[in-house]
Amino acid sequence: MSAPAEADHFLVPLLDGGHGLGQVARVEVDGTLDLLLTLRRDADGGPLSDAEIVATPRTPASPFERGIWWRAGYHALPPLGRIDRTLATEWPPLQDPAVIEAFLNACHGLYPWDGFPDPEHFTAMLRPGVAPPPSRTFSRPGTG
After folding, report:
1. Is 131 part of any domain?
2. Are 37 and 95 spatial neighbours (Cβ–Cβ below 8 Å)?
């Protein structure tokens, strides 16, 4: 499979057999992707709004090329997704696709929110001002 294009919606498999939804905000010249992640679990809900975007990671296109993540339609980018990254401060360093999958699973309570060696890793991935999802679960006593 080939890499997606800007504004493509895509599905990420979750541990419960469902899917998380994201959108490609930008394809960089080096082939990496700027993503918009949401808590939505379906691709049929139309365009994303800024309020739905919980994280804006960058990642390689490899999960698309290997058929692990797949395209699920196309919609106009929300205003947040049209920000010129050269002017934006929200785009974090490159994230491994497996970390993004773990993050989406943690957002849906399917993986511990504190499951990484740094228990605040997923909280740090959230966009500024976005609260951790209420469905999150914890593996360590006293966290959360």
Report:
1. no
2. no
From CA 99, how far away is CA 107, in angstroms rounded? Answer: 12
Question: Can you give the residue range of the structural domain that contains 34?
Answer: 8-95
Outline where 72-127 has alpha helix (H): 97-107, 121-125
50 in any annotated domain: yes
CB count in 10 Å sphere of residue 28:
13
Strand partners, 74: 8
91 assigned to some structural domain? yes
**pLDDT at res. 87:** 45
Structural domain total, the chain: 1
In a domain, 77, yes or no: yes
Mean pLDDT of 27-33: 88
pTM reported for the whole predicted model: 0.89
pLDDT value at residue 30: 86
- Between the alpha carbon of residue 78 and those of residues 7, 15, 30, the distances in Å are 9, 28, 23
| Structure tokens belonging to residue 14 | 């979750």
Residue 27 pairs in a beta bridge with 33
Residue with tokens 């379906």, as numbered in its chain? 42
Residues 58-76, mean pLDDT to the nearest whole number: 92
Separation CA 63–CA 2 (nearest Å): 10
Tokens 């959360």 — which residue? Answer: 144
